[in-house]
Amino acid sequence: MPAANLLALQNVTKHYAASGATTGVPVLAGVSLAVARGESLAIVGPSGSGKSTLLQIIGTLDRATSGEVLLDGTNLAALDDLQLAEVRNQQIGFVFQSHYLLPQCTVLENVLVPTLASTKSEVRSAKSEIESVAARAERLLKRVGLGERLHHRPGQLSGGERQRAAVVRALINRPQLLLADEPTGALDQTSATTLGQLLMELNQEEGVTLIVVTHAMELAQRMGKILRLEAGKLVEDGK
């Protein structure tokens, strides 16, 4: 994989077992893809085309039936579950249609949840680093317009504010890759437009590679490239 590419998929297939069938139900049929560092990419296609399945495989939430997924030169298929969990925590950020914020925690506490995976010994030996993580959380929350909401709980926020908090949580560990699955799907038009613009700005400011699965063409057209998933394969959609 060329050094400029962060992510590469090579002939990735996915089949799901079907009751009474001798062969699995095909979802992905030989997907190949190369994504450069810092690139922004939208994947579009009809419901049921496998967009979310593809994103879950890229994000190590699911495994491909065959083929390779290379992240920063590492073949993810060769990693065990514990190693994949570390990749998810340290190298990949996720934003979903639902924010999945913990209702009992404040916005700031929610953002810091992914940083708690470090062992107690690591925390003790890196107190200054932990403090910088908290400072980063506050800075990013202020950056997305939530500086006055640090100590509010999710139930006190609007839908757009909750999704912006989820974006900051996804970025807190400085991931190389940010994956967003229908991030504006539950938002009104104004909030969706605001979030789409914010994702593009953070793509540039944080230097994070961004892949968005969406039905919203307004969001897709903000990305540097659009690919369409058809018949289990990715094709150029144009912009």
Domain count: 1
Instruction: Tell me roughly what share of residues is in helical segments.
Output: 25-40%
- In terms of DSSP E residues, the strand content is 25-35%
Looking at the structure, the CATH topology is: Rossmann fold
How would you spell out the order of helices and strands? EEEHEEHEHHHHEHEHEE
Low-confidence stretches: 119-125
CA radius of gyration is: 18 Å
Largest sheet: 6 strands, mixed
Strand order of the largest sheet: 6-7-8-3-9-10
Q: State the end-to-end distance.
A: 26 Å
Rounded mean pLDDT score: 90
Question: How do the strands and helices of this protein lay out in sequence?
Answer:
Elements: E1 5-16, E2 25-36, E3 40-44, H1 51-58, E4 66-71, E5 74-75, H2 81-90, E6 92-95, H3 107-112, H4 120-125, H5 127-143, H6 159-171, E7 177-181, H7 189-205, E8 209-213, H8 217-220, E9 225-230, E10 233-236
Parallel strand pairs: 3-8, 3-9, 6-7, 7-8
Antiparallel strand pairs: 1-2, 1-4, 4-5, 9-10
Helix pairs in contact: 6-7
Task: Walk me through this protein's architecture.
This protein is α/β, with parallel strands linked by helices and 239 residues long. The protein has a single domain, classed as Rossmann fold (3-Layer(aba) Sandwich). It is 34% helix and 26% strand. The chain has eight helices and ten strands. The protein has helices spanning 51-58, 81-90, 107-112, 120-125, 127-143, 159-171, 189-205, 217-220; strands at residues 5-16, 25-36, 40-44, 66-71, 74-75, 92-95, 177-181, 209-213, 225-230, 233-236. It has a six-stranded mixed β-sheet, with helices on both faces. It has a four-stranded antiparallel β-sheet with strand order 2-1-4-5, with helices on one face. The two termini are 26 Å apart.
